[in-house]
Amino acid sequence: MNFLVPVKEQFHRSAGTFIGLGSAAKSLEAFHEPRVIFSSLAAIINYLSFHGYSLWLFTFSDLKTIVGPSLVFGIANGLAASNYELEIPSLMASQEVRRRTPLVVLWIWMNLLPFTINNQTAEDAIEEDRINKPWRTVPSGRMSPRQAKNLMLALYPLAIVTALLTGGVRQSTSLVILGVWYNNFAGGDISSLLRNMINAFGYVCFTSGAMEVALGIPLPLSLRLVRWFGVLAAVIFSTVHLQDMYDQMGDQARGRKTVPLVIGDGKARWSISFAMIFWGYVCPRYWHGGTMVSLMSILLATVIAARGLLLRTVSSDRLTFKIWNAWMTLVFVLPLLSQREG
Predict the structure, then answer these.
(1) Which segments of 9-70 are extended strands (E)?
(2) Cα separations (Å) of 168 from 118, 263, 282?
(3) Which of 95, 109, 115, 263 is the most exposed place for a label (fewest CB within 10 A)?
(4) What is the rounded distance in angstroms from the CA atom of residue 250 to the CA atom of residue 263?
């Protein structure tokens, strides 16, 4: 039976070799599995980063005009709720506003995003952006016009759903209507007065919605609150065409009827300057602002008025509009700085 020994040894060697190969295969598989996981995670992160940045580019130009000022208004006026005769204790309002600030940012951005996509997907808008703002999402090729429009159609109802969860439903619904009117029914093109009016109502919706989300309650229509929003609407209606001063060539090419194109560049500048001097004095007086606040408002307004009349290049008008946004932010916080007793 000794002849079986070599056979047995060979069998054991073969079995050992097989087991060794199996272990090696398992080790190799275990070595590759983390690499697959990491590569998949990297692909997901790249995908989300690419499309997240694309969404960001849609709203980038409006960060200084809508997102920032509306956020400041929502927080400042939420903290100053007692000045509007709202029955909210100051300490409670302060705690609620701090807690809900991220929701304010979310609400503003979710309502702004579909509007900006709608505004940037018209054929003439895309052609204009290829020249002036080629970095934007559609002209840069990050998203096709059809994809952008489909996204917009999904985001409008999503903005309403967001408002149902955070507050600001009335304002969000109004912004959908104003956005469609402005972009799809030529509300921003056929009349300079209508264009300014839609802009004024849009600002009021963004600011009042931000305040409502910050407080976490529907804003009651107190007389003082309604009056202040009326003042803000009048301020914006009479001065917002400052943003049209540096884009007259583009607006003329698209057939828009903006204030400088309808009444002329010079008259438009004088209208802005008179309005700025008037509102620079009236707004802080309305809230019984202190000397420093009043002087700051009047100084900024005077700078805007003077620059509009004396510095008429495209780059100068762009900077003047940025200063206008800084002044509007000051106006937005006047209730918080007010010396008026609640």
Answers:
(1) none
(2) 21, 37, 29
(3) 95
(4) 17
As given in the structure block, the two tokens for residue 319 are 């900077």
User: What is d(CA 254, CA 247) in angstroms, rounded to the nearest whole number?
Assistant: 11
Q: Which residue has the tokens 């940045």?
A: 53
CB atoms near residue 50 (< 10 Å): 11
Note the maximum CA span of the chain: 119
Mention every residue, 6+ apart, whose C-beta is less than 8 A from residue 244. Answer: 251, 258, 259, 260, 261, 268
Q: Which one, of 96, 41, 101, 98, lies nearest residue 67 by Cα?
A: 101
Predicted confidence (pLDDT) at residue 46 exceeds the cutoff of 70: yes
In this structure, is the dihedral angle defined by the CA atoms of residues 83, 224, 279 and 205, taken in order, positive or negative?
positive
Would you give the end-to-end CA distance of the chain in angstroms? 110
Structure-block tokens of residue 335: 């209730």
Residue range 275-327, pLDDT digits in tens = 999 999 999 999 998 899 999 999 999 999 999 999 999 999 999 999 999 99
Closest to 277 (Cα-Cα) out of 300, 259, 293: 300
